[in-house]
Amino acid sequence: MKIPTTYALKFVLFLFIGLTATNISAQEVKWLSWDEAAELVATEKNPKKIFIDVYTDWCGWCKKMDKDTFQDSQVAAYMADNFYMVKLDGEGKDPIDFKGKTYKFIPSGKKGYHEFAAALMQGRMSYPTTIFLDEEMNMLSPVPGYQKPEPFLNIAKYFGDNIYKDQDWKTYTGEGK
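Now predict its structure.
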C-alpha cells in the first residue's frame, strides 16, 4: 500500500515537532558529587552558586521531591543555569573536605549521620533539606521540607538571582505587608 505524499509529509513533520518538543521540555538535572561541585567553584572563572539536596535512601518526601520538583522542566532549566547541583546522602559514609575540615560519618542511633549534612542543616536533621551556598561556598540558607515546583522555584530565584542581597524574604514574597 502506498501512502499519499501529503500524508507522509504531515506524519514526518508531526513526528519531528513532537520529538523536538519532548527534548526541549525534558531537561534533566545534572547532579554532581560534593567534590565535583567544589572543584568547579575553585577552577571556573565565573563559578555558579551551589545547591545541595540533603536526602536519605528511606525518605519518601525526598523521592517525591526528586520526581515532582527537580524533574519539573522550569525548575530543571533554572537550576542548571544558576547552580551546581549536589546530591548529599545525609547518612553517607565517605569523608568530605570543606574549608579545611574533614567531615565524617558518625555511627549513632539506628542509622547514623554525616557530620557535613548535620553542619549544613545546622543540627536540624530533617529530610529533605535543601541548602543554598554562594559562589564562595558560604551558607545562604538551609530550607527544610518538601517543596512543590512553584514555591521551590521562588526560593531558588531568591538566591540564584541575588535578590537576597537587596530584599529580605518577607518583602520578596509579599508576606511583610
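The longest strand covers residues 49-55.
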